[in-house]
Amino acid sequence: MKITDVKPYPVWVGSRNQCLVKIETDEGIYGWGEAGLSSRELAVAGAVRHFREFLIGRDPMQIGALWQEMYRSQYFEGGRVLTAAISAIDIALHDLVAKSLNVPVYQLLGGKQRDFVPCFATTGAHGQKLVEDVKLLMELGWNVIRTGIVHPDTGGDRHLYEPRESLALTAKSLVNLREQVGSEPVIGIDFHHRLNVAETASFCQRMPSGTLDFLEEPIRDETPEAYEALRRMVDVPFAIGEEFSSKWQFLPYIERGITDFVRIDVSNVGGLTESMKVAGWAEAHYIELMPHNPLGPVCTAATVHLAAAVANFFSLEVRTSPTEKLGFFDKTIFPVQHELDGARFPVPTSPGLGVEVNEEYLKREEFKFSESPHLHKRDGSFTNW
Ligand SMILES: [Mg+2]
User: Fold this and answer.
1) CATH number for region 3-104
2) Contact by Cβ (8 Å): 69, 54
3) For domain 107-352, which architecture applies?
4) Where in the chain are the domains?
């Protein structure tokens, strides 16, 4: 079997762009992958086109060797653009190789270790609506729930974010939530790296111990030493890693005990090949995976197969739940996709990833330039999205 084409599709799907990649072979078997560098999809598609130049004619069965060749074939190795491209290609290779062997992708990863994949839901509500949302989710069987940041009144300016005002309101909302829902649900919050070290310490100090089970990405991740300093100041478990683009970026966070949950993203870290290495490394440190999964059905399927095949798994992010519905799962675009059964994904039995993509739709649809908010504080200075 030989690779005959590697086709990037950076196109508008639902309410934002997705970067899908199709790999075709001379035997008519094909695979789909998805890259996760949201909002800079054209850069990733460009990297895929570079890799396409030497992937055509290659044997797709040699997934590990192709990963190494893609990673090592330029002087400027690594980085988020290149590994997002490698991720999509690696996922597509797993899809097509598994189809050629007539097995689900997890069989390439050592076989399944569980019958279903537990998931967590997100609610962006706050105050009493947050309490109602969490109670509703609990009634429907969701026992891991992630909340979001409370924003102060911005007078309608969606680009305004003031960390100190926000952390005070958010802490108050979370303390009220825990008081009202009790100790049973696992509750976390994603701070989307909007804080600095001092602000995060202040945020945690405004809540009794036990309010939060995990704090996702309170600060940016470029400097592990900053996270180590923060680790010494607070006792809330951290969930970090959704932006990491290789095992090497996970290294300090796992080796130095900085993160307590691995927020791995298969579409950014380097696909399933790299994910399995990070999973094994985390297992050695008794750390469980809580994968980042904000994209479409291809990323979700790849992550379900990863979750099925590792021992140290906690919960999978889903963005379709009773309290949230993001529009990336359109059946006209993805006629076959994994379906939630309550708060879990059944482990699939069909060959490959178990996803079908309407390529004709992707050919017709175009990329649309779209920017996330460029956040600023009240004084005009820029801060993190
Ligand atoms: Mg996050």
Assistant:
1) 3.30.390.10
2) yes
3) Alpha-Beta Barrel (3.20)
4) 3-104, 107-352
Distance (Å) from CA 299 to ligand 1 centroid: 15
Cα torsion 289, 200, 224, 296 to 10°: value is: 40
pTM more than 0.70:
yes
Q: For residue range 41-84, what is the model confidence (pLDDT) as tens digits?
A: 999 999 999 999 999 999 999 999 999 999 999 999 889 999 99
d(CA 236, CA 204): 8
For residues 289 and 282, is the Cβ–Cβ distance under 8 A? yes
pLDDT digits (tens, 9 = 90+) for 370-384: 998 999 999 999 999
pLDDT of residue 172: 97
- Cα(15) to centroid(ligand 1), Å: 18
The residues whose Cβ lies within 5 A of ligand 1, an ion, are 190
Q: What does the pLDDT average to over 329-337?
A: 92
Cα 98 to ligand 1 centroid, rounded to whole Å: 30
> How much distance in Å is there from the Cα of 190 to the middle of ligand 1?
5
